[in-house]
Design brief:
Largest sheet: none
Radius of gyration: 18 Å
Strand content: under 5%
Number of helices: 13
Helix content: over 70%
Shape: globular
Oligomer: single chain
Structural class: mainly alpha
Number of strands: 0
Length: about 260
Amino acid sequence: MAHPAMSGTGSTAGDDPLGTAVWRLRSRACWADAAELLRPATAPAALQRAALLVERCLYTEQGWAEAEDALRTAEALADSDDERGAAACERGQLAYAATLHGVRDRADEARAALGRAAALIAPGAPGRALLDFRRGLLAENLTGSPQAARAAYRRAHAGATAHADPLLLSCTWRHLAGLALRDGELAEARHGFAESLRIREELGYLVGTAPALVSLAETEPEPEASRLREEARRLFRLLGGVPTWLARHLTPPAPGAATA
């Protein structure tokens, strides 16, 4: 299952108090509260607000109408190629999330929006790494093309490194590790999952820590695997059952149930 990322964490010393407050709420699954702090009077604020509400959809499977409204506002205010590209990138992510969660098949819309973003966001621009990551998600989870996904994730990984975007870097580590695990590269997968978890713990990104723990558990022997899953369950309960899709990965097998 895919996870979103937005550039900037609000967790560095140079961030303003508003950015820090938004980050703290976002990292604790309080996207609506974070969005309330942002007045969508300018394109950057409207884009950030839309991105928060799109992210909420992916993690909670709720709030679709609010995200659409916020996105339309951001699209209306965008007046540069970078801003229009960022809005298209969020449009693609929202359509991807709706398709992934079975709300409605919007795969064609997702592809078109991300293609539009690629035409607007210059190679090497800060927003390009996030776009590459999301194109990887589309290739992996909707198109079923792991090779294309790996290439996109690697571009995103390089961009996140170049632009010092640690949250996005945690996402690229995790998804590259997932592809490695699918290919049977256990050591590579364990390393990637461990790096992703380390970054998220350092950032205090609680809502993304439980999925990272579950992923790492897939590569660890017992009893470490069970310890990691129990820690993930604790965080999952703490955050009120978010991300929603993680529940099926945390349900203990029934006594006597066969396992493959």
